[in-house]
């Protein structure tokens, strides 16, 4: 019904940009999901200033608590060059000068992060930071990240800090408020524990190292360096808690300790002269099948085992540990992981404990809490479907804190949110507390794909761990995540151009009991499994034909597949594994694809593809974007591409509503333009670009971030991040005048399509005019990976297929591995 028309723009690295890129003021805010969406390994209250507390996350930076229970993000300035600031492995709030905040940041200690870590120093409670570089890597998203805190400020002489490194780098000390650091060479252990020495990626085969540093504040007076310091180390079966009596000059193993398990937390109860320690037999955050809780009486040098449960009731390790500084002897501890999470509380220093819930007679539970997720309704209670218990209280519970100024106020972090409440002492008086999701302001989603459809809801998202959402509001949380089928991670989604309420999504749950393709005819409100998919096929990218009859799927496990009318998916042999794909939004017969430098076209609903052009010589396309009602066309269906000057690298691209009726669609790109890496908009198909992000909004790693543009509202664009949720931006100031003259372009008032390809690596970007539904991701060079080799992950350019007998399984956003099928 429409002529297929395509405009192709190619970006050449070699062409200099005409002038400096100008900027336009944009207002940015999170698309509210609420409730976190990821792991919160640390929550730390300042012991001195009432109400001051911070939370750290593993991939989404750090946050400061507000008086109304909401949280303020502190590291949104982290841009592509500083993406590893979002991995916060430890935090310390200064008990003396409470304006001082220190964060140990860095994402991975293996090759996933090429950069060393740094201590970020703030003197204004996290509003601004100065980095102090470290000569080694820091692993905010590594195993053992919930142990801690590894970073501590001397409570008597606050210019002194200690930091416990990973990877065998040992214990470090600063005497100038974290500006410079030196290794404490007298410290006797750097930690030998390694979660999995056989992991070829280095992710599970690195040493966890020093786990925590705890000053005994009572051992000195203000102004003098604290002599007694306890340090926990990730050693299993050898001494793992050490103490100094002279401010860190000399060290000895704490006598009488039990080194059967790893010490996760060492928390001082000053009034009791006691160190409480939680232990687990794994480093966490996912493991732990045994553990204990111990207390050490500093005056008498005696240890007491105060583990809350024993025998067959003990099938978990312990993580979070809190003391109530207002009520010495009141302590709490969490089961780090267990099929049914658990929290214990004692008011007699661990002699007796009471649980947050218990079995009445299996499977009936007594829950000593009421539960509210009004701030993030999608969280529960069904989200944590732990049949038969149907418990809500969480898992991966490494952080647990009681407000040092308010015995009723407590918070704990889980794999998905922060829970807590304001009536904690009701646990003792009534054995009933109010649990609430208290993570308002924390937006920690790892966003995989975004679609702003032309009609219906404003936005539909595919996210890691929490499935995905239909966003009918940008400021209120969604009521539920994708249901039936429910997958942990939705890898991608797309809509049908002529039936824009019709959606397809693909999941990434290897080994799931459901096929990993689902279809919706109501903009994602409900879904049906596409039984044309085989059970063992997962992940990748998906494209829906314009009339919603055909699904083209560039899977991460089985190459490119196609299915019409939900028939069994069959291989598309004419496309390489890992190809980028997109559907035309008007012509049901047409799909686009790209792999390597080759651009492909199908005019028979995806059955076969023909190479129609080569996009330069050394280009790896990152994205094809198709606009449903673009007004531009080329007459050659993508057989040639035109260079856009000045762009040396681009990761994601999207097409949105035009500035003027009948004008060019706005083009948005995450790109390096003229040496500036950022987020840009062009209203004249690539001649003039304005930068739309600013110094306060860096959005982390550009290569991880999907972009989609609003087709209804000019200027509005959505950016998905890997750890800081979804952002919406809209113009807040006038667009600067163009500096270059737009090329003459053939112009049509008929509906047509625009397809866009951007290069992730090199000299050429192809911007043709088409869809906004695939996330940015470099394209595999094809081929087949050998056993246990890497087969995917952010930035991966190698093979995504595995040798026979092996399946490519995502281990994390940065690494997929060929494991035995
Ligand atoms: C050390 O802890 C383990 C595990 O709790 C326990 O089985 C063992 O008896 C303890 N050893 C001593 C000497 O107390
Ligand atoms: C572009 O492709 C469409 C679909 O096959 C075809 O109908 C049209 O003639 C092509 N246009 C040109 C100029 O090749
Ligand atoms: C999935 O199952 C099919 C049919 O049993 C098989 O041919 C294919 O090799 C399997 N793929 C993977 C990646 O295991």
From TrEMBL:
Residues 783-819 form the CBM1 domain. The keyword Ribonucleoprotein does not apply. Residues 730-784 are annotated as: Disordered. Pfam families: CBM_1. One of its GO terms (molecular function) is cellulose binding. Keywords: Carbohydrate metabolism, Cellulose degradation, Glycosidase, Hydrolase, Polysaccharide degradation, Signal. It comes from the Eukaryota. GO terms for cellular component: extracellular region. GO terms for biological process: cellulose catabolic process; xyloglucan metabolic process. Residues 741-781 have a biased composition (Low complexity). Residues 1-20 form the signal peptide. Belongs to the glycosyl hydrolase 74 family. This is CBM1 domain-containing protein. It comes from Collybiopsis confluens.
């Amino acid at each position: 019904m429409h002529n297929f028309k395509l405009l192709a723009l190619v970006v050449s690295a070699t062409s200099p940009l005409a002038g400096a890129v100008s900027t336009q003021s944009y207002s940015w805010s999170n698309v509210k999901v609420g409730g976190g969406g990821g792991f919160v390994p640390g929550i730390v209250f300042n012991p001195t200033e009432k109400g001051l507390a911070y939370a750290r996350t593993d991939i989404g930076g750090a946050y400061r608590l507000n008086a109304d229970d909401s949280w303020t993000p502190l590291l949104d300035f982290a841009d592509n060059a500083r993406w590893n600031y979002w991995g916060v492995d430890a935090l310390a709030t200064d008990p003396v000068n409470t304006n001082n905040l220190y964060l140990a940041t860095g994402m991975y200690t293996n090759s996933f992060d090429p950069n060393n870590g740094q201590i970020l120093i703030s003197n204004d409670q996290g509003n601004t930071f100065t980095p102090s570089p470290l000569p080694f890597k820091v692993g905010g998203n590594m195993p053992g990240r919930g142990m801690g805190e590894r970073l501590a400020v001397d409570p008597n002489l606050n210019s002194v800090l200690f930091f416990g490194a990973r990877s065998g780098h040992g214990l470090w000390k600063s005497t100038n408020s974290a500006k410079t650091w030196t290794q404490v060479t007298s410290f006797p252990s750097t930690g030998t524990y390694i979660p999995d020495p056989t992991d070829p990626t280095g992710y599970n085969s690195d040493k966890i190292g020093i786990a925590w540093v705890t000053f005994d504040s009572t051992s000195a007076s203000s102004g003098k360096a604290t002599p007694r310091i306890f340090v926990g180390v990730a050693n299993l079966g050898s001494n793992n808690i050490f103490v100094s009596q002279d401010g860190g000059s000399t060290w000895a193993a704490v006598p009488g300790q039990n080194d059967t398990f790893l010490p996760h937390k060492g928390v001082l109860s000053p009034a009791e002269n006691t160190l409480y320690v939680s232990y687990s037999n794994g480093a966490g955050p996912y493991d732990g099948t045994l553990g204990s809780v111990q207390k050490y009486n500093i005056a008498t040098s005696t240890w007491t085992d105060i583990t809350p449960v024993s025998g067959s009731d003990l099938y978990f390790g312990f993580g979070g540990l809190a003391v109530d500084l207002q009520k010495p002897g009141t302590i709490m501890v969490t089961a780090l992981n267990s099929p049914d999470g658990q929290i214990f509380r004692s008011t007699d220093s661990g002699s007796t404990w009471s649980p947050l819930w218990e079995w009445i007679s299996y499977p009936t539970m007594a829950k000593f809490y009421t539960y509210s997720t009004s701030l993030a309704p999608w969280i529960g209670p069904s989200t944590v479907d732990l049949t038969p218990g149907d418990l809500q209280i969480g898992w991966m519970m490494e952080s647990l804190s009681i407000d040092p100024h308010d015995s009723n106020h407590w918070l704990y972090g889980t794999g998905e949110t922060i829970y807590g409440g304001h009536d904690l002492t009701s646990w003792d008086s009534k054995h009933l507390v109010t649990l609430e999701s208290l993570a308002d302001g924390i937006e920690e989603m790892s966003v995989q794909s975004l679609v702003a459809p032309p009609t219906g809801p404003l936005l539909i998202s595919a996210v890691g761990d929490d499935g995905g959402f239909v966003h009918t509001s940008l400021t209120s949380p969604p009521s539920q995540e994708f249901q039936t089928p429910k997958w942990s991670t939705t890898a991608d989604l797309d809509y049908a151009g002529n039936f824009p309420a019709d959606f397809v999504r693909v999941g990434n749950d290897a080994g799931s009991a459901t096929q990993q393709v689902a279809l919706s005819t109501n903009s994602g409100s409900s879904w049906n499994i596409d039984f044309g998919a085989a059970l063992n096929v997962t992940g990748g990218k998906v494209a829906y034909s314009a009339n919603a009859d055909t699904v083209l799927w560039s899977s991460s496990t089985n190459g490119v597949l196609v299915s019409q009318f939900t028939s069994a998916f069959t291989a598309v042999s004419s496309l390489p594994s890992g190809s980028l794909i997109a559907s035309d939004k008007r012509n049901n017969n047409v799909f686009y694809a790209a792999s390597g430098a080759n651009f492909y076209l199908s005019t028979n609903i995806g059955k076969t593809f023909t190479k129609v052009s080569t996009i330069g010589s050394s280009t790896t396309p990152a994205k094809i974007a198709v606009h449903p009602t673009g007004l531009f066309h080329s007459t050659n269906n993508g057989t040639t591409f035109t260079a856009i000057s000045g762009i040396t690298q681009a990761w994601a691209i999207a097409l949105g509503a035009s500035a003027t009726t009948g004008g060019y669609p706005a083009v948005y790109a995450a790109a390096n333009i003229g040496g500036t890496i950022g987020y840009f908009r062009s209203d004249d198909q690539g001649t003039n670009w304005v930068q739309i992000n600013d110094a306060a909004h860096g959005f982390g790693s550009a290569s991880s971030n999907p972009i989609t543009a609003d087709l209804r509202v000019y200027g509005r664009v959505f950016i998905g991040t890997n750890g800081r949720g979804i952002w919406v931006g809209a113009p807040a100031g006038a667009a600067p005048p163009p500096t270059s003259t737009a090329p003459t372009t053939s112009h049509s008032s008929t509906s047509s399509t625009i397809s866009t390809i951007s290069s992730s690596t090199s000299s050429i970007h192809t911007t043709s005019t088409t869809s906004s539904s695939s996330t940015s991701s470099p394209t595999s060079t094809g081929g087949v990976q050998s056993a246990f080799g890497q087969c995917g992950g952010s930035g991966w350019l190698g093979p995504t297929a595995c040798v026979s007998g092996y399946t490519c399984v995502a281990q994390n956003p940065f690494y997929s591995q060929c494991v035995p099928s």
